[in-house]
Amino acid sequence: MLKLEFSRNYNNSLTAEDLFPWKEEAEVTISRVPLLYTNSNMAKKQAWVHSSHPRSHSNLFFLVVALSVFSLIAILIYKVDNFASQTKTIVGHNLEPTPWHLFEPKNFTDESRHTRAHKIIHCSYLACPYAAADGGAQPSKLEKRRGLVSSRTPPKCPAFFKFIYRDLEPWLNNRISMDQITQAKEHAAFRIVIVEGKLFVDLYYACVQSRMMFTLWGILQLLKKYPGMVPDVDIMFDCMDKPSIERNQFGNGSLPVPLFRYCTTEAHLDIPFPDWSFWGWSEVNIKPWDEQFKEIKRGSRAQTWVKKIKRAYWKGNPDVQSPIRTELMGCNDSSLWGTEIIRQNWTEEAKAGYERSKLSNQCKHRYKIYAEGYAWSVSLKYILSCGSLPLIISPQYEDFFSRVFIPKLNYWPVSSIDVCRSIRFAVDWGNSNPSQAQAIGRRAQQLMQNMSMDQVYHYMFHLISEYAKLQDFKPVVPPSAQQVCEESLLCFADEKQKELLKKSAVTSVSTTPPCTLTRSPNPNFFTAWAEKKQKIIDEVKDMENRTNAAAIT
Known about the structure:
Shape: globular
Pfam family, one: Glyco_transf_90
Organism: Hibiscus syriacus (Rose of Sharon)
Number of strands: 13
GO molecular function, one term: transferase activity
Number of helices: 18
InterPro entries: CAP10, O-Glucosyltr/Glycosyltrsf_90
Helix content: 40-55%
Strand content: 5-15%
Family: Belongs to the glycosyltransferase 90 family.
Radius of gyration: 38 Å
Largest sheet: 5 strands, parallel
Strand order of the largest sheet: 9-8-10-11-12
Distance between the termini: 151 Å
Structural class: alpha/beta
């Protein structure tokens, strides 16, 4: 007999006959109440299974989805952070200092990692496309502006523009090849490529402070000022001080590599370009050039020449590996050398709000000293702007405009040998010849006044245009280069930098073309110019020697 138990409590059995009536031999007895109970209990269990099981599957589904989304977000954040950590920027993210001029690496610890990553991605890759989508200049408008620019008769360029030809002379016959551009990379901090009026930059090393930012801003203003006129070009640029392309290393068919920077020397072939401070220098509170010059000139008029202090004045930083400045610090004796030499502490000046370092307050003396620093110094243009007699200590370096200076016409030459005594002679000469000293100071100031930002842009335009003519290839944007626009620079700039950048921005397209660049001068022109300057310097030195000899006897 087959028996099936449904419940231990009731101990009832169900026969095979009840379940299988065709089986005659099966017997079973069962109580109906327990069977109803059992059926009801089974129904509840089935109902629970059918009602609760779908909910467990649904909860599990949402949990899996949530975990998947969270994982994707985590992976995305990691990928973005990783991508940002490899993206080089114009303010120095993920860039090492130039190995040929080391400085303290930049840190960006004032921002969280995610904030920094967002800023890098947005400023580097999104700012320019967004700006273009919001409405850039339309081609038809550019063509119209180009026609307006070309319809006016431009003035003749100043004399110092002729040095563009001297700077580019090494490549005049054989031109500039892509191989030379590639070789110049080992000397460059970044690469500038202009294609169809757009600026692209390939970054190799960081630049000290905000030099790169303000230099690129200047080029963007040039493109805005003369839309459609700046040619496609490929330029290697070093943003540090000392020239590196030595003239004596090339010859007998060996061509130098073309490299732009802020200064050069007679012994170098680096191509000088207007420095960043023409658009402002945020780290030392110097304003854009046009505004800064006007302030300095107003300050120079606070005292008449007669009331100006009859001493030679210098204020600056001597701790820049400059032998001349180190020696100059030993000349700080007003009674012995007729000087007032002041050490500039920029850390303390920053704390004091730069009140004691205002350039417009440093024109109270009849004589202002210029001493080169680690190399050339941007202070030159500010010193000449005072209207005081500039005392320039035997400069080794030249920027793009200083080569036009003529001794005794717009500055007084000071010997680097026995600096203190040479300064004393210049002060004595000026005090004995006040009208002549004042006239030299006025001519120096006028020279700086003539060098407006319009003239700076003219120089940039002609230098880039003449350089582009020498390239024997069509410039192409490198795969690793990033587009740079006003919006991307402002995106990276801090508040002080933004203030200066916006102040120095070109507000309208020029209605006149750049000045007319005269033809390349006779090759003997530059030699004759240098000889003329040296002759006057020798005459001044001879005067000084005779005066010193007479004093001894």
